[in-house]
């Protein structure tokens, strides 16, 4: 019923899983859990003049089958739980999620025959709810009055997920926020993909921070191999991860109301704490100038990456990680009424360049 608490030395999937992969390869087909990764990497050219001087690259994890990078975590953690006997046929997967990880688990659960229960809250946007339901997941809502002092629902959701896992037979709760295996998914998938694509000459990787699985998996795998590489974190204003003051925020995908146990700040060269108005403005600029309709957190990550490009100077090669697609944010970030209702005014043209240039890095 509990999430995995002990991380053995990093290993690939079990021999049985490898045999399954080989079997699928022989017959010329794979199931959805084996269709992850090796996503396109595109170069930004129109969003900012700095892209003409530096190589600003975006790894489109939005091109995974379910539309996000969190499917890698879902497949990896489910497979490890199966190997450890924590998740057995007919079992139930229970998790707290505001969106993408829940969708990833629902996708894997549908493919492998598990019941999936996702604990959500009022911040969970309608498209995420519909996606979860479409995969057959059951949703459990946590009421707004259980929010913590900063307005976050994360602790309340996690508490509810833990309670459900304790009462439902054969339940498994991966607890992405605390699970030390969360980062191994990105050592197994994302970091190795980056290594294969960039055997040398990569100056920095810019990654959003929430549970810290993505950024730590990438950092721990790549830094020993590329000692000069800068690993840069991106957080949202209102989150406390980087030591900045807590306040309510609407962003999902990055940010937490507590410090994630998996995060080792000593592995980061710097971080950016990006205001939501800048992040959402970058989202709109990516759609209109680059033809890339991407998720809310991508706006913050690209803002940080563009600031970093200015700092590193001409000929820098910077890779930014895009976590998810933008279609699931059409009723929020890409909706003028939602932006107006929450007091977000889009920043455009040179004013957006100036806003990005005004960001102040956090150093460790």
Automatic annotation (TrEMBL):
It comes from the Bacteria. The keyword Isomerase does not apply. Keywords: Pyridoxal phosphate. Residues 32-324 form the Tryptophan synthase beta chain-like PALP domain. CDD domains: CBS_like. One of its GO terms (biological process) is alpha-amino acid metabolic process. SUPFAM superfamilies: Tryptophan synthase beta subunit-like PLP-dependent enzymes (SSF53686). Its cofactor is pyridoxal 5'-phosphate. Pfam families: PALP. InterPro entries: Cys_Synth/Cystath_Beta-Synth, TrpB-like_PALP, TrpB-like_PALP_sf. This is Cysteine synthase family protein. It comes from Desmonostoc muscorum LEGE 12446.
């Amino acid at each position: 019923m509990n999430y995995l608490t002990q991380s053995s030395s990093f290993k690939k999937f079990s021999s049985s899983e490898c045999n399954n992969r080989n079997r699928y390869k022989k017959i010329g087909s794979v199931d959805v859990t084996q269709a992850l990764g090796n996503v396109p990497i595109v170069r930004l050219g129109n969003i900012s003049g700095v892209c003409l001087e530096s190589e600003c690259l975006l790894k489109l994890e939005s091109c995974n089958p379910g539309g996000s990078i969190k499917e890698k975590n879902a497949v990896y953690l489910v497979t490890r739980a199966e190997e450890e006997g924590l998740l057995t046929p007919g079992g139930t997967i229970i998790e707290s999620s505001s969106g993408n990880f829940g969708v990833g688990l629902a996708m894997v659960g549908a493919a492998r025959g598990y019941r999936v229960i996702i604990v959500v809250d009022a911040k969970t946007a309608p498209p995420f709810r519909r996606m979860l339901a479409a995969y057959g997941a059951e949703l459990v809502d946590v009421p707004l009055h259980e929010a913590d002092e900063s307005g976050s629902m994360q602790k309340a959701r996690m508490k509810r997920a833990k309670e459900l896992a304790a009462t439902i037979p054969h339940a498994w709760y991966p607890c992405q926020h605390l699970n030390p295996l969360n980062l191994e998914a990105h050592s197994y998938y994302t970091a190795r993909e980056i290594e294969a694509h960039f055997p040398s000459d990569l100056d920095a990787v810019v990654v959003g921070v929430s549970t810290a699985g993505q950024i730590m998996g990438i950092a721990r795998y790549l830094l020993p191999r590329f000692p000069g590489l800068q690993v840069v974190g991106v957080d949202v204003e209102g989150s406390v991860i980087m030591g900045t003051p807590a306040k309510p925020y609407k962003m999902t995908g990055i940010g937490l109301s507590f410090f994630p146990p998996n995060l080792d700040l000593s592995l980061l060269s710097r971080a950016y704490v990006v205001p939501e108005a800048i992040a959402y403005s970058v989202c709109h600029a990516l759609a209109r100038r680059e033809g890339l309709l991407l998720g809310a957190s991508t706006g913050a990550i690209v803002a940080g990456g563009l600031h970093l490009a200015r700092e590193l100077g001409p000929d820098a090669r910077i890779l930014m990680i895009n976590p998810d697609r933008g279609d699931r944010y059409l009723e929020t970030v890409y909706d003028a009424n939602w932006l107006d209702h929450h007091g977000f005014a889009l920043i455009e043209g040179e004013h957006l360049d100036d806003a990005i240039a005004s960001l102040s890095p956090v150093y460790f």
